[in-house]
């Protein structure tokens, strides 16, 4: 009888050992991975929400209001010039702008498409200045100085965004220049918060551009072809103004009807 009890005890001991050996470590590891992944996802979402909230708070003072019509005036480095609107020139004419890139003055009668368009090649500036007259923001960059992640950071501010356009600008004296009608800001860093401040303050700011409500949609071939835009040409010097092929930035062509005065003008 004693030996039977001993055998039963031995079997129970072996069963206990077997139970200990069958601990589901693989399942535990899988659960741990899921928990860690979920924690990382929630942590990332929390940080992004915090960053977005901080960004919105930082940009709030640059939202235009009836009491603060030009918030861009408080951005360090912004240049402001008062330009008259609706001075149009022919597609065969050039304008002797006094700023590079230009941000106001006489311009082509056809605007450049500017609803989130990133042009891969330099575009005729007379068309882009017309886009500014419609309330758009134009981000110009020196293609020899802005590449890689910096270029991607600028594109992210433009692609899919209404009344925003971007193009390379050969010979630009700084890596980046941001324009709206009558406003310009030159920078070296694509991640400079002042770019976002400028866009917040001036994109479609009804107090800061001449043709409120004007379109940024593409006009199409024969006017301005977004897929085949007129190429960039360097600004002619003021000394070459002749009132025929080269116009002053303060004088339009009498043969070009301003927007809003012809069917489909804006």
> Radius of gyration from the CA trace?
31 Å
Strand-and-helix sequence, N→C? Answer: HHEEEEEHEHEEEHE
CA-CA gap between termini? 108 Å
User: Main β-sheet, in a few words?
Assistant: 6 strands, mixed
Classify the secondary structure makeup into a structural class.
alpha/beta
Q: pLDDT average, as an integer?
A: 89
Strand content: 5-15%
Q: What is the β-strand count?
A: 10
Oligomeric description of these chains: single chain
- Total number of distinct structural domains: 2
Global shape:
elongated
Question: Order of strands across the biggest sheet?
Answer: 1-9-8-6-7-5
Number of H- or I-type helical stretches: 5
Helical coverage, percent range: 25-40%
Low-confidence stretches: 260-266
Please describe what this structure looks like.
The protein has 266 residues and is an alpha/beta fold. The chain folds into two domains: 26-62; 78-248, no CATH class. Helices cover 31% and strands 14% of the residues. The protein is built from five helices and ten strands, in the order ααβββββαβαβββαβ. The strands form three sheets. A six-stranded mixed sheet has the order 1-9-8-6-7-5.
Descriptive terms for the model:
transmembrane; elongated; transmembrane helix; DUF3105 domain-containing protein; alpha/beta; 266 residues; two-stranded parallel ribbon; single chain
What secondary-structure arrangement, pairings included, does this model have?
Layout lengths: L1 H20 L3 H35 L19 E2 L7 E2 L4 E3 L10 E2 L6 E4 L6 H9 L3 E5 L6 H9 L7 E5 L7 E5 L2 E5 L5 H10 L43 E3 L18
Parallel strand pairs: 2-4, 3-10, 5-7, 6-7
Antiparallel strand pairs: 1-9, 6-8, 8-9
